[in-house]
Amino acid sequence: MNGFFKIQKMMIAVAALSVLFGLFPLPLHACKEFLAEGKQWEYHGVGMYRIEGDSLHDSRTYKKLYLDGQGGSDLFGLLREEGLRVFMVPSGGQEERLMLDFGLCVGDSLRFGSLCYKTTDRSRVVLQGSLLRKQYFLCHEDSSEVIPTKLTWMIEGVGCDEDIFCLCRFNTSRSRLLRVFEGGECIFNEADNMDSVMLPVVGEFEGHTIKDRKSWVMDDGDRLVVEGDTLLGQCGYACLYNHDSRGESQLVALLREEDRRIMSVCPGSADEFMVYDFGLQPGDVVACRCEGDFFWIEDGIGGASGDADELQVMAVDIIEVEGKPLRRLHLVQRHYELVDGGLQAGSYQPDIWWVEGIGSNYGLMSPCANLRTGAVAHLLKEVVEADGHVSFTAADFLQDITPVKNVPRPVPGKDFFTPGGMRVVGSPSKGMYIERTGGTVRKVIMK
User: Fold this and answer.
1) For the CA atoms of 189, 195, 198, 201, what is the dihedral angle to 10 degrees?
2) Chain CA centroid to CA 356, Å
3) Which of 72, 145, 326, 328 has the least CB density, counted as fewest CB within 10 Å?
4) Structure pTM?
5) CA 143 to CA 131: how far, in whole Å?
6) Could you read off the pLDDT of 384-413 as tens digits, one per residue?
7) For 426, which DSSP code?
8) Rounded-to-integer distance, Cα 314 and Cα 280, Å
9) At CA 265, angle to CA 262 and CA 266, rounded to 5?
10) What proportion of the chain, given as a percentage, has pLDDT over 70?
11) Is 150 helix (H, G, I), strand (E, B) or coil?
12) pLDDT of residue 147
């Protein structure tokens, strides 16, 4: 095995031993404590929940939960947690009931009287360096003739978006979680839920993409293969070769991974460029440039210019590739040309898909489409691992997504939400959404 990959394996081994002997924790499967003395939850339209003091009930120790609202401060209930579950004895009550379960699987339900919360999706959230569980629910009321289903969520150690215990209030104004404080420090704020709750999925960085003998097969028969490694300055790079349909082979790039970025150096050059940044957020806009067959992303967030296209991140969600949850980014590419001294966008704005560990639907070295006049856009066919098995195909870019036509106006009984759980008001524009029709939920891509 080449030196670059030996170093990779040694670093992974050292990290594993460090975790084993407690040098630094790996919070991937840690259980985040929900109840802590002095913890506070601030909800718009409700007030502030807080933990203060202990109490004995039925030979068990509970934490006291108070609600500070417009009418003053009242004891809301007694709480205790057991693993990933939180139980409560309501104020003035005697019986304990299960309120939160952060270990629910897709299809599992929580029920509160006539309210039923069915788990529709799960993901991971990174908060303060810890990888936490997150569940999405559809909530409906059994007695309603027209079921007013709502999409809601809860995060391990944080709570729920509408109320501290997912208590949907039908026919009333919607409350929402603003901030969570613990130890006098804000550990969660409203901005963490603006789609970013589905973004940082993998807690530790493993170098998902560049692996020796891994190959990317294009629809024209060309095959990009990682073969060996080299040193350039103080950095180790993997060598990427293109084997074309004529049987010819050529070194096309030197690659390395840094956090969620893929960096590249052109053969014969000492300049390093960024090809991907899988850490981009929804709404981010970056400039993509092309010189010959070499593409790169501008370092930093900004728009296009006369010699660059614009990539805007429309949505980010999670897909599973061979058992690993990886980030999928949906981007729209806008090609600009100088017309009469000003920038003018072209009419063709293709959808671009990035998947962490894979690259884009236009191939590993093409983070966007080549929209130059006369250029032929080739697409990725499949990704083949070193042992010869196919780990990803072109169809996987649309995993769990149903393409649908644009909805010109709101449709009764049909609601759309962003991947982060925000309801879309009015008609959704082009992009990826969660569509809810009655009790049916699916991810769709709006054309």
Assistant:
1) -80
2) 10
3) 145
4) 0.54
5) 38
6) 999 999 999 999 998 888 777 766 666 777
7) S
8) 10
9) 130
10) 71
11) strand
12) 41
